[in-house]
Amino acid sequence: MAAPLTLLLIVAVTIRAVLFRSSLAELISERVEVVSPLNAWKRVVEGLALLDLGVSPYSGDVFHETPLMIYLFHFTVDYAEIVFMVSPYFVDCLSCLLASLDRAKIFRKQKYALESDRYPADCLELLRSPKEMFYIPLKVAMFYLLNPFTILSCVAKSTCGLNNAIIALFIFCTLKGSALLSGILLALATYQSIYPLTLFAPALLFFLQRLYIPVNLRRSSFWCFTLQYAFIYVGSLVVITGLSFFLLGSWDFIPSVYGFIFSVPDLTPNIGLFWYFFAEMFEHFRLFFICVFQINVFFYTIPLSIKLKEHPVFLIFMQIAIISIFKSYPTVGDVALYMAFLPAWSHLYRFLRNIFLVSCVLLACSALFPVLWHLWIYAGSANSNFYYAITLLFNFGQILLVSDYFYAYLRREHHLTHGLYLKKKDGTEATLVLK
Amino acid sequence: MGLLSDPNRRKALTNLLTRLNTPICIVCYLAAIVWFMGLAFEPFTLRTYMSENAMGSTMVEERFSSGERALSLAKEFDAHKRKAGGMPVEWLVKAMQARGLEVFTQSFSRKLPFPDENKERYMVGGRNVYGILRAARAPRTEALVITAPCSPGNSNNQAVGLLLALAQYFRNQIYWAKDIIFLVNEHDLIGMQAWLEGYHHTNITGMEYSPLQGRAGSIQAALALELSGDVITSLDLILEGLNGQLPNLDLTNLFYAFCQKLGALCTIQGKLQRNDWDTAEGYTHAAQTMMLMVLKQACGRSWGDHGLFLRYHIEAASIRGINSFRHYKTDATTIGRLVFPSSPGMLTVLTPVVISHLTGVALYLLPVHLQEMAVEHFPVSETEAVVLTAIAIYTAGLALPHNTQRLLSGEGTEQGWKVLKLTALLYLAVLLGCTALINFSLGFILAVTLVPITASITPHMPKALCALAMVLLSPAFTILYCVFIYQELIEAPVSVGEGWMLFLSVISQGILDHALYGSLVYPLLALFIYPCWLMFWNILFWN
């Protein structure tokens, strides 16, 4: 396992180093699919320059990173390339470890369930064997490191890679079982971009499951732990925000960062759904639709948590996917993060129904994004509708992927409790439909 | 989402698709070809119309009357050109200054990657001369460009003469609201590229040029003139630019409207419009014109000096005066009246108009090219070496299956070649789609030749026959067929040997275009289409 992993790391480093030194690096760092106003390297450099001059980096509405990020780069700006090279490896190693932790947990759970005869007799083939799961960490690493989206995001020096690293570290600490570290890292991730707030629920569910506390609103043990975790989380958030205030000396990072994320003033085209909609919105309705779009991101937490309360790890995956699709300024780096975890659910492959269609859609859209951008901006023979059509199709493909995996997961769980070959009351073969 | 989640309907639909796969493919292919050829069928085409923001051609008066002065200037220019042995820079500068323009020059130099045999050049260096006529009463924010190339020999003298006469005429008008730049460029497209790069402060092609001293604001439109004779019988409008880009259709319509108003004969692709649309002959004529345009657009070359403007989103077109000895079915007196086109009229409404010259292409357009054909080609020149190397790499790829079979896993299995075919077909589909979006003609030609054989290929077909079919339909042979079809369409058919030499020169011009102007056709064919074709070749030899 070590040898293939090392080979993979070497290949990934080579690809990134070659691209960093080529003329493509500048081209990639200007692509709107790869960088957004929130995480573009150009803006970080601008913010650093302002900071060096003694002016607040948030004056001028160019810089929208958090203060801790700017101070991090203040010290490492000369080694920026190394920082960006290291962060995917960070994510990658963490994902590897995550996958192996998850694997150990799954085996334990399966062993207990088998011993207690909880599985029907005919679904033994659904159980996961060590042999098939041996290579999952390597596959997860490969999916993240060699994903063209990650490579593009890294070469463009988008800080999305660092955000992904923090989220990966958070998931790692959660799976390891350390509530304190998990709360602190979740606070850090929320501080970076607000949307990881929704990951509070799955993390909480995971800890409750791990500590064998039943999720019952009437039990005091539930509230006891929830309040503890919430206290760690909120406390860390307050500490980090206060630290930023002291470092920066003023509160103007709050409207610049969080106000920017929520109110979406910058309508540069990207792979998200917000820009086109708000470009043609009348001012009168703008607030209403901002609220609707932002609630959309947070809204799925509660129903998904209720449905998947026994399976917090899958819930984390679903939440990350939903954040990547519906956030206000998505980039391909966000997409790469949840795609990296897909090999962990490779046992669901037999229940996926639309995977071919989804792969074709995502591939074709990734190829068409630069073509239609060129036609719109440079050749002048298309307009924003063409580009938004591809954006819509891309997001449709992503939503289909996520819902397909959801269906497959639930179906497998259903089979594990009710048997693999389902029969209707009259003996004919039944089919499962997700309604 | 019923179709995607309801299993019964999905099963029905997938069964239908898999059962009727072959008929659907054949029907789609034939429908595509019929629909494309139907584009030349007159009832399907739109009447030419003017969109709202173009000023009507009827609102403009043409008053240019200095035809003789332009002819005498042309003779002067010719004499000075012969004396200077190249571009008579000093004379041009003096002539433009005498007409009240602000004159500047730009020198440029470029070393071609290998010698260009068609134009006989390798180290190219020259100077562009341009004069700016400042608008009398407007801020200097926008500009128009009129350009005439300085070509060696007898060509394009009248264009430069007309340019200078126009400059003099315009200087006396007071109503110009945009600056007008009169540009004479040396070494046709290379000089034009140098000027455009200098004007827009870019450097996409590695050209060395001196920075431009004088500037006039953002260019709105450009017109390139190519006139080589005192007597012109018709005006050819050339539209196709680099990478198949075309200018705004309003430009074309404007030009037609003006020609009709003046009674001038306007041709496109060198062919006149006919009135008998509903006869077979009429349709053939229209289809031939359309195929000519498709072939020209597909090769991605800039067929005139205007083609490079399109990249900067400047509408441009080229006007070439043709003195043809053919018998037209039109009034002889109308032709006789045509000594000079009245370009001033065009220019006053030239806001969206940028007509690209399409003449530059492969020297097989100009009547002069037959002389190029006669040039002997041995011993093997550097150009030929490059071209033959490209062809050799191409042919070496044919041996690929034998070498990679041992490395690929899944060899010898049914599953293996099916997966490869699936991936290759998806890749081809995405590639053809993207190509068609950027350059429709190129995408269409590639699709017509590649799709039938690649869709039907399996390892179980008779190997020799299929191998022959695949090679005959490969991109290289497509280029060869296009060369022959093109020669037929311009009514200068060639023999096999001459066709082969033309084919080699087309490849070398393709490589040079990519190096000099950033044309994308050669990299596309070599880096994307060819590997795709190789994948299918591998499938054929799967064992």
UniProtKB/TrEMBL annotation, chain A:
InterPro entries membership: PIG-U
Membrane-spanning segments: 166-188, 194-213, 225-251, 257-278, 285-302, 314-342, 354-379, 385-407
Keywords from the named record: Endoplasmic reticulum, GPI-anchor biosynthesis, Membrane, Signal, Transmembrane, Transmembrane helix
Organism: Sinocyclocheilus rhinocerous
GO cellular component: GPI-anchor transamidase complex
Pathway: Glycolipid biosynthesis; glycosylphosphatidylinositol-anchor biosynthesis
Gene encoding the protein: LOC107729780
UniProt topology in membrane: Multi-pass membrane protein
Main localization, broad class: endoplasmic reticulum
Signal sequence range: 1-25
GO BP term (any one): attachment of GPI anchor to protein
Recorded family membership: Belongs to the PIGU family.
Taxonomic lineage: Eukaryota, Metazoa, Chordata, Craniata, Vertebrata
Protein's UniProt name: Phosphatidylinositol glycan anchor biosynthesis class U protein-like
Annotated compartments: Endoplasmic reticulum membrane
